[in-house]
Design goal:
The complex is a heterotrimer of chains A (about 170), B (about 400) and C (about 350). Chain A is α+β, with helices and mostly antiparallel strands. Chain A has three helices and ten strands, in the order ααββββββββββα. Chain A is elongated. The relative contact order of chain A is 0.14. With about 400 residues, chain B is mostly helical. Chain B folds into two domains: about 210 residues, Up-down Bundle (Cytochrome Bc1 Complex, Chain C), CATH 1.20.810.10; about 110 residues, Helix Hairpins. A two-stranded antiparallel sheet of chain B has the order 1-2. In chain B, helix 3 packs across helix 12. Chain B is globular and about 70 Å long. The two termini of chain B are about 50 Å apart. Chain C is mainly alpha-helical and about 350 residues long. Chain C is about 60% helix and about 0% strand. Chain C contains 15 helices and four strands. In chain C, helix 3 packs across helix 6, helix 4 packs across helix 8 and helix 6 crosses helix 8. The chains are: A alpha+beta (about 170), B mainly alpha (about 400), C mainly alpha (about 350).
Chain lengths: ~170, ~400, ~350
């Protein structure tokens, strides 16, 4: 058969492939998280409920969050969130090793992960020589009065991020 | 074990041929699958149906990702989540709805093409029977899919159609409850029809499509004059490859020659298809089904989708038992066409005398039945026309063997 | 080629015929309404002008139907029953006619907005936005009343709420319209003044959603926009220790109680309107909202009294919620259709080439 046949056949094939890419784009958009899921990505935490030395657990984007109002004895850290003069440790309560939830040991003032024995102090810093490779992750937050809005990046968060303190 | 070429490069043509007989497969299915030259665009309906089924499958997959098969969640998952939240969810839903409607239009065109050209007999009986089997399977698929949005029409269509299985005076309500898994269509009913729609029926349909293709391979497709084509001689002429010999050959290979025409016809079809998807989708999405299912309130008018109207109308004008029997016969009578047509002629209806009248009467009768099926039964004029058309439907079928028995033989 | 076009013409003809029969023709036949003589009644919108025309039309059909039945009835006893019904229908017909005539005279009075302010202030006792059910239903917020409702309707409402809303049949026995106590308490001039006040001071243009919230929400929910009979549903948070959202549960109970009161008062729970724009035709919605009795005789839904502009706002909101994909469709349509047109042209060229030397 002549070359023209190849040309027309290939033109049609190429054009169809271009259309298929359009179809794949629609398919990709269908796989995206729904707008309602995205909109639900913010959690407001009322800090007035926090008790010194007693971590409370909140939920943000389906993950557990530690909020610990520090007592005077607990060492201060650049990772602390300061609201109204009080210092808070706020982090995603998932061990940076393999994602288990550490439990707070009041006697030792540490977060202990039962899965592989990882330990974090009250600033979320991982103790050396144990499996976790990095401190507990700090979620994006914004301070609004006496509340903390998780999911939006306030100036305090951006400052920490700049200093590589959030992870 | 067959001989293989040890030196062939992995995944090269020779390597694949040794293992999969790729060249042979391509020949059998494509380049040496011979189609008569003497055809028109109606011969493209089979590929259009295959393409539409593919489109229904793909759009269905995306709908399935967000559809919730519970009586509490179904309506909102379709009308809110898919239509409002999911990116291009509306596109999949419109494509799925339009596809479900158009697939029946093409099936009917495909069927009546076969009837007109006599493509169901003298070696082609299994093509017809497997095709009718596909029609029944698609009907079941359409009905089960119609349940899923769980609107008023879903609920009441489910109620009415499952009630048919009580068998009239047989009062087999136990059977009806068994089908529903409940006294009325409820969670059990929705769950099992969901399963049928997304798993069991599609699997069976895919199998039946393969079977339908297989039935074509030996007798080959018919042509528009019903001529006996000498496929071997024509294939030889085609393979000779000269312009002269190809002109003399009565056949063309499925790919690329036949396919090029199919794809052009498909293009025209897709323009219509997507015009409907964007601008005229309402005809495939009944307004009544945008009211959520309510078991305590029947809609003012209940009617099936347009493609079931003719058989629904056959049920309606008679008393309960007679109607059910008529309905049951109407569902299966087309299967018997190859055996009720007693004439040996394979030719277009225009050359078959009385059969030509039979064909057009049958077509018009089914269209009239379709009209009447949607109109309210309260009007006596409509009810009368419905009754006459339903009776005519059976008279035509009863007359078919006699009309065709005395048909003049066209050629030996 | 010629033959193919002929075949195509046959296929197109029968497909078109089929479409015509199951769509336009069937819908026409299904939704047609007939009077006693079998003539088709055309229900048309009156452009949201409220002057008693729709009442006169509906009552005219009822009276004509009864007159025919009285004529046809042979035996004396049923004839007497029918005659009594006819007399009652004629009575209603004349009462309505004189009511709307009076509304017309009030409309011609010049209203004084300043004088109307005091009168309007007394409306606030009930129309206070506190979501308190009074006599079966929550009194609507009037913030945009002047922009949403027709002047004649407002006059009629202050004169006799049941007559204005064309639901007087509901209160024929002993019960009273929740706003019925106002009937006959205001002079014609006072009515004109209060209406003038609303038309001047409560006439800021509402958004589509505000229009819906004020005109429809006390009875109809809109769950796809998180709107209940009590208005916008509050944002609440679950207790992560129990997984339950107690505030949401309490709110759901409040809504359920309000719905129960409403359902008792209306006879049934008015439907959620999230999908109504897909479930009913545009023509139905327009005539139904203008006067529900034209489409559903005997319904307890009152006339809403929207002006044309008010209706357009409400309609816009129903479209926004019920058919949200319209903008996306309009963007995608030319691309997809254009693609297939070019696809078909290319396919035709390919086909022509493949078939060139075949005959």
């Amino acid at each position: 058969m002549s070359t023209r046949r190849d040309f027309m056949g290939m033109a049609l094939g190429g054009f169809t492939a271009a259309g298929a890419i359009g179809g794949l784009y629609a398919a990709k958009r269908t796989w995206d998280p729904l707008p309602s899921v995205k909109a639900a990505g913010s959690t407001v935490i009322d800090l007035s409920e926090a008790i010194e030395g007693e971590p409370m657990t909140e939920k943000w984007r389906g993950k557990p969050i530690f909020v610990l109002k520090k007592t005077a004895e607990m060492p201060a850290h650049d990772r602390d969130v300061v609201v109204d003069g009080a210092r808070y440790h706020v982090s995603i309560a998932l061990c940076t090793h393999l994602g288990c939830i550490p439990a707070y040991k009041k006697a030792d003032q540490t977060f202990f992960c039962a899965c592989h024995g990882g330990v974090f102090d009250t600033s979320g810093t991982n103790l050396p020589g144990l499996p976790p490779p990095s401190p507990l992750e700090i979620p994006p937050f914004k301070i609004e009065g006496n509340t903390l809005v998780l999911g939006s990046e306030g100036p305090e968060y951006l400052e920490m991020k700049k200093n590589n303190l959030v992870v | 074990m067959a001989k293989i070429d040890e030196k062939a490069f992995p995944f090269s043509k020779q390597w694949l041929d040794d293992r999969l007989a790729l060249t042979t497969v391509m020949k059998v299915l494509n380049t040496e699958y011979w189609i008569p030259k003497n055809i028109n665009f109606l011969w493209a309906m089979g590929m259009i149906l295959a393409a539409t089924f593919g489109i229904l499958l793909i759009s269905g997959i995306f709908l399935l990702m967000y559809y919730v098969p519970t009586v509490e969640g179904a309506f909102d998952s379709v009308n809110y989540t898919i239509m409002t939240e999911v990116g291009y969810g509306w596109l999949w839903r419109h494509i799925h709805g339009i596809g479900a409607s158009l697939v029946f239009l093409i099936i009917y065109i495909h069927m009546f093409t076969g009837i007109y050209y006599g493509s169901y007999k003298r070696g082609r009986e299994m093509i017809w029977i497997s095709g009718m089997l596909l029609f029944v399977l698609f009907s079941a698929e359409a009905f089960s899919g119609y349940m899923l949005p769980w609107g008023q029409m879903s609920y009441w269509a489910g109620m009415v159609i499952t009630n048919l299985f009580s068998g009239g005076s047989l009062e087999a309500y136990g059977l009806v409850e068994w089908i529903r898994g409940d006294y009325v269509p409820g969670q059990a009913f929705l769950g099992r029809f969901f399963m049928l729609h997304v798993l069991l029926l599609p699997l069976v349909i895919i199998g039946a499509i393969v079977f339908h293709f297989a039935t074509l391979r030996l007798p080959h497709v018919n042509n528009q004059d019903g001529e006996e084509v000498d496929f071997e001689e024509s294939a030889r002429l085609w393979k000779e490859g000269t312009v002269e010999s190809r002109k003399k050959s009565e056949v063309i290979p499925f790919s690329p020659v036949f396919l090029s025409k199919d794809i052009f016809v498909m293009g025209v079809y897709f323009i219509l298809f997507f015009y409907l998807v964007f601008y005229n989708f309402n005809f495939a999405m009944d307004p009544v089904n945008f009211d959520p299912a309510d078991g305590l309130k029947t809609p003012a008018h209940i009617y099936p989708e347009w493609y079931f109207l003719w058989s629904y109308e056959i049920l309606r004008p008679f008393s309960k038992d007679l109607g059910l029997i008529a309905f049951a016969i109407a569902q299966v009578i087309f299967f018997a066409l190859p055996f009720l047509d007693r004439s040996p002629n394979v030719a277009p209806a225009s050359k078959r005398g009385l059969f030509q009248i039979w064909f057009w009467l049958m077509l018009v009768d089914i269209i009239v039945l379709t009209f009447m099926g949607k109109l309210p039964p309260t009007d006596p004029a409509f009810a009368f026309i419905g009754l006459v058309s339903a009776v005519l439907f059976f008279v035509l079928w009863a007359a078919l063997p006699f009309i065709t028995m005395f048909e003049k033989k066209i050629k030996e | 080629m010629n033959k193919e076009l002929k075949i195509l013409a046959v296929v197109v003809f029968f497909t078109g015929l089929l479409y015509w029969g199951v769509e336009p023709y069937a819908h026409h036949a299904m939704h047609a309404k007939y009077d006693g003589q079998g003539n088709e009644i055309k229900i048309e919108s009156h452009g949201f002008v409220y002057d008693g025309t729709t009442e006169a039309n509906v009552n005219g059909v009822i009276v004509a139907d009864l007159e025919r039945k009285v004529m046809e009835e042979g035996s004396p006893e049923p004839k007497a029953v029918l005659a009594a019904k006819l007399a009652a229908a004629k009575d209603i017909q004349s009462k309505k006619a004189s009511f709307w005539k009076e509304v017309g005279t009030i409309a011609e009075l010049k209203g004084d907005a300043t004088a109307g302010e005091a009168g309007f202030a007394s409306c606030m006792g009930c129309h206070n936005g506190l979501n308190m059910n009074m006599g079966g239903v929550i009194p609507p917020n009037l913030d945009h009343a002047g922009a949403l409702y027709d002047k004649n309707y407002l006059i009629a409402l202050l004169k006799d709420p049941a007559m204005a809303s064309n639901v007087d049949h509901k209160y024929a026995d002993t019960s009273m319209h929740p706003m019925g106590s106002i009937k006959g308490t205001m002079s014609h001039q006072q009515i004109a003044d209060v209406v003038a006040f609303m038309k001047e001071k409560k006439a800021a243009e509402p958004t589509a959603k505000q229009a819906f919230m004020e005109a429809c929400v006390r009875c109809h929910a809109m769950r796809y926009d998180k709107v209940t009979q009590l208005g916008e549903a509050p944002k609440t948070k679950e207790n992560i220790k129990t997984g339950h959202d107690i505030e949401a549960m309490k709110y759901a109970q409040k809504v359920a109680e309000e719905q129960a009161t409403l359902a008792t008062y209306m006879g049934k729970l008015p439907p959620d309107l999230s999908m109504i724009i897909r479930a009913r035709s545009g023509h139905f919605m327009e005539t139904f909202i203008e006067d529900p009795q034209t489409q559903l005789p005997g319904t307890s839904m009152p006339r809403v009294g929207l002006s044309e502009e008010g209706y357009e706002k409400v309609h816009q909101y129903l479209m926004d919620i019920g058919d949200p994909s319209k903008p996306a469709r309009d963007i995608a349509a030319p691309w997809v259709l254009g693609f297939f047109v070019i696809f078909t042209i290319l396919a035709y060229l390919w086909k022509r080439h493949q078939w060139k030397d075949l005959h």
